[in-house]
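fyi for ur records
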Amino acid sequence: MTAAPLLPLRPAFLDRLAAVRELAVPLLRGPALGAAISGTAAEFEGYRPYLPGDDIRGVDWNLFARSGELYVKLFRVEEEIEAVLLLDESASMLAGGGAKFRTAAAACAALAYLGLLTAHPVTLLRYADRARGIFGPHRQLEAFTSLSRRLAAPAAGGGTDLGRSLAPLLRGLRPMTVVALTDGFQREPLARVAAAVRAAGRARLVVVLVRDERDRRPPLRGNLLLQDDEGAEAVAVLSDRELERELHGALARDAAARERELARGGAQVLSLPAQAPFEESFLSLLRARAN
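which gave:
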């Protein structure tokens, strides 16, 4: 049975995101990069419709008197913090029916919506062994529809190289928060990517590890052919319960080591399960980061 698509996001869920958008501020901005809040600086940029939870002081009452509709004024701040969202569309994200990719794409859409609501320019990058498409930066909420369509497009597959994919964006001088949505499987250690982002000076890295528990505890008994989803390597083994237990332990240790290396490299690591109901899992992620 084909799993139900997560995109486009339900309007009711978008309303919930709008109501808790302040929870996204620590994730997309981060204390090390300073403030970049709509309405605090000099340059007026336009309007968007009023949403529940908006500061009523931002409403343009003159426009309301003319149109009868509530609109919030938007301003471009002197130093914007760009939200750069990277969606891993490599072969490992498609394993097991593609739940990881669908979850990552939906989370990317939710983060894009929150970024636009909280006055962050949003850039989307789909990647595998290289950047497969860079879209943005976008500043207006109207761009969310086109971003959602790009996120809903099928994944390309192939190998994974986050560092190579991200390199062109790190050459710029603008401050940014880079959020990579990935399962973490690639040949180059992700810690090197974290170090490269930190060396760029005006960027910080958040890695959202999209987890499928079958990656950590796959059934490994009997005659098996173990193969890398993104490479040609394969090994035949005959596994019993004891070997299965050892292999599961090795996978768990590898995952824990990867997270420790990322943290040492200066990245923040968050976790998003691929099998759990998406909307509640994503809101839990926001709350965990805010706390």
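Residues 8 and 145 are 9 Å apart (CA to CA). thats all i got for now
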